[in-house]
Fold these 4 entries.
Entry 1:
Amino acid sequence: MDLALEILGFTIGIIYLWWEYHADTKVWLASMVMPAISMWLYFSKGLYADFAINIYYLAIAVYGYWAWTRHKGKEAGKSHKTLAVSHTPAWGWTVVAVATGILWLVLWRLLSTFTDSTVPVADAFTTALSIVAMWMMARKFAEQWIAWMVVDIVCVGLYIYKGLVFYPILYSIYTVIAVFGYRKWLRMIPRRKEENT
């Protein structure tokens, strides 16, 4: 059962990556399906923080879809337009640093105190940074790919250690795609956005 779910999660994960790479709004539909699969797998492997983050993933998928498709434009007569890719502003980096640090410490403490996790530090870190990276993605900040590179690299080692078969391969692919995705999203930033940052 776990292996079949892992293969299904792997397949949806590849489709998700394709849509994310192309900044396609359908990425949020995959974001609503993947958590259900991952929750089962993570709980069965004792990755409790990764399990819990999928509740957040469901909520941020709804928000991300709304933000990408119902973004209010600045132009007169255009009440809605697609959110454009942009650089993370200075205030955004402050949010990223502070939120990641606080979430990491809180999750680390919770995992160490209330669970039998054998990897509380790494599990808490990947969960904290993933929460922040999803928020960055929902805001369509190009640098979300950098956050995902870090998460993916740590997850490869973590999942190998926990005995998962396909997820380490999936997250290795994620790491490579994140490099190319970042470069692609940088090219998608409108000129006027680059001049204003």
Entry 2:
Amino acid sequence: MTRADQLKSLFASHLQGEDERFMAVAMQVAAHEAKRGHTKLAAELQAVIDQGRIRRQRSDLSLDKISPASYKNRELAGLLHITHPKSRLGSMVLHQALLKQLERVIREQQQAVKILAHGLQPRRKLLLMGPPGTGKTMTASVLAGELGLPLLQVRLDSLITKYMGETSARLRQVFDVTGKTRGLYFFDEFDAIGSQRGLTNDVGEVRRILNSFLQMIEQEKSHSLILAATNHPEILDPALFRRFDDVLCYQLPDQSNITSILTSRLKPVISKRVSWKRLASNAEGLSHAEVTRAADEVLKKALLDEQLRISEVDIRRSLEERRQIIQQFTTLLTGS
């Protein structure tokens, strides 16, 4: 598209009230300026575009007010749980490799104009895999917070129905809105959609839903981010992996991570002569969420008991309590 065509398209989209088309053409103009070497102007244009998007999203996206321009009908409003997180990457304790992957996603999104100017695409379709409680859901909040985007969590209880063809139709509604309202769209417990075709308990409708998702995410060309998270990567269909720009693997925290979690929450009120190494060793095998919960529980107990200092024994007991709860839950699930 020539510069003249871009200007005409900008005026036409503005006069016709097509906000997302206006934003897309504006991004093209910014990318064109970046390609010509006008990096300062390109950055200023992108900043103006981002500010405009944030203002529009804040006015359009709320649980009480659903914008007709952004949603086809009230049914779609029930498919998306909308929040505006303020979380930051610094609040997460992660392995270095995973931390670098997230930093790269944030950087590419923040400098998208520079990347688009050279015919490349910033990472925006991410698959998050790993055990429960390792930070996948928190990652969605952090990316939305870092990028100033609304977080739109897809409600699987409303998305998946027993009627043939209805789930795919609702999935299409979700993908249609990604191009109209820029945000971070989060599919949690993604294995409900992405399980392998051909599993013994598979039925035709399950295959149709997966095929629909594969087709829709392949064709999706918006500037929104799409995140899918699963605790069971082993049952995902192999065809899914190449549809995502990046795969992020989450693990249980190592001793260094555990120490960071405990010290960040407890160090101001801890008594002397505490061995963080010993505590981290005791907590191995627990998830980030469980270690955090154990720290919060010992803090609450100290508060209620009017206890000014927390001992190593207090923390160890809390960690052991979390471990016992997990073991009891696992026993109930397996029946062993």
Entry 3:
Amino acid sequence: MQVKKEQLTPTSTKLTITADPAELAVVKQHVLKDLSKSVKVQGFREGKAPAHLIEKQVDQNVLQSEFLDHVVNERYVDAIQQEQLRPAGQPQITVTKFVPFSEVEFTAEVEVVGDVTLADYTKVKLDQTPVSVSAKDVDEVLDNLRTRAATKQDVTRAAKDGDEVTIDFTGTDAKTQEPIDGADGSDYPLTIGSKTFIPGFEEELIGLKPGDEKTFVITFPKDYGTASLQSRKVQFVVTVKKVTELAKPELDDAFAASVGPFKTVAELKADIKKQLKVEREQEAQRAYDNQLIQNIAEKSEVAIPTALIDEEVERIEEEEKRNSAYRGQTWQEHLDAEGVTAEEHKEKNRPGAELRVKAGLVLSEIADKEKLTVTPEELEIRIQLLKGQYPDPAMQAELDKPENRRDILSRMLTEKTLDKLRGYATAK
């Protein structure tokens, strides 16, 4: 096989591929063997007739078409490997010469990952922030546990801190009085003091009795999750339908035993502190890794094909759509809440998508440079561990699928690469 490579753009390559006669002969025999399964030749069992007799029996157009498909597909893959290219999509194939079974030449234009110029990642330093858990953090968890275990009693008095109120509410723009999608609710249970709602909202409910209505204005935080509501003044009209007193159980050894395998409150507190520390360490590690990768990616240069960025934008969009559906919000309602069109929303996600793709390519390049690999034995051990976590036979079968095994291998390689980068980043 002969391959001529032409770089059309930093992320687009044209390959001119000419197959060798010996390769073509092998392909022809392979195709005839496949076709023999559907051809009957008198005096021979199915699939056992000689190739030259099969060739006389089959439709020549079918034979030539199958032959050409095999040649193009196989030689294209070989050429990509030979030239060490990383395709970002399907190639555009053009057959430029075809003499049946003796000569084949074709071109393949394809988007590829361009040159990657890595920053000196061995000198990128980043300190890890220590994680701590305070007594207040533990007390907050204990209070939540007691709240969930509280007995409830409807009351007619005014609501106070710690009560649960059931409310109907609507939100409108404080200036224009136009309704705001997603800023209304019905029969919504809210515990005053839980800090689970918009800052300042819960405090407005103190002193209200069942049947009371109140109108007030809340300014949304500047870092609120929905961009269109950030720093926005919203007028709420709230009707209290029910006030419920929560009688929390005493924080004693009996309560600790009801929560889990604990004999004393001290044991429960120690377990909560341990779990909180593990969660925060994991969260801090993810944040550290993301920042470290971003620092290296920003200092590196990568020629990224548009197709890869487009795919990542679509993945981000699909994730947002699932989250919107989970919140009971249609995609159009989500777009309206952000005040953007579908196309504007995609463009807003493009910079983040590009950085994610770039970070992934940089990680892959570092793994290659460091000669990091995952052995078959390491992969099998990880899969067996995962199977131990998922006893369901269907889930275990999923872990054996080739695409899932590749995904697990990729994650393991990423873990090794990150571990190597952490070592460089924290070395004194």
Entry 4:
Amino acid sequence: MTERLPTLADIEAARARIEGKVKRTPVMRSAVLEAEAGAAALCFKCENLQEVGAFKARGAASAVFALSDAEAARGVVTHSSGNHGAALAWAAALRGIAAHVVMPSTATAAKQANTARYGARIVLCEPTLAAREAAAARLAEETGAVFVHPYDDPAVIAGQGTCALELLEQAPELDLVLAPIGGGGLISGTATAVKGRAPATRVVGVEPAGADDALRSLLAGVLIPMERPDTIADGLRASLSERTFAVIARRVDDIVTVSDAEIVLAQRALWEALRMLIEPSAAVPYAAIRAGRIDVRGLRVGIILTGGNAEALSVS
């Protein structure tokens, strides 16, 4: 791979670019969950309370406000299962430009509605990566809009990394930071920020067992594309890119997986303890703790709750 990897300086620049546009989300703790985890300090970074209900607002704002005036005037286009599309639509509206979002026909009603709420033009397609990419390419050609990839974009990755910068300030001296892995944009930004600011802090990614391309790629030492992901965590069905795999291979200390049943139990536990309705993808890191995939006894742990755009019945 010839493209350079993201740096701490990139993330700091993104933070300056999006300051005043995104929220500094709170960090919450639960005595009940901490006792169950063996007296660990569990610091939940609540990106479910972010603009558009997800951390994706950070990367989208970073990318949109990195555009020149001439580029921005053309509008932006992307493909997304939901949160990135809504975030890009929100960021585009903030800058006063058009947004076109290709979504799979299987995208949840909540995520389609959230994207439409910010004024995006939504185009539905078949639920395959090839169909999404082809539809987005057609839209870009027809409209002249700038394509903003959901995660394989330097400005997007840098924006996502700003979440970890805040977490390290709000909960200093962490032993471990956990984040979910889908396409790898968040974990890439997180690992870059953490290793740049607190190199002794471990970074562990968590995947659904039915969408474990990052773990398989890390074990093989080469990128293994995702085929037929099967998980309730719809936001984590994307395949890594060469860029995000390269960051993971160099800066992420470990990857573990959890089952869909464990994800649902974690989602319910977080609702009961924190009174927050989060989407399944956001429950994945805590599921690894709850299921014993990671030993956090006595440790100080940062956990990124990535989004709250959930169907209400998913935790019933």
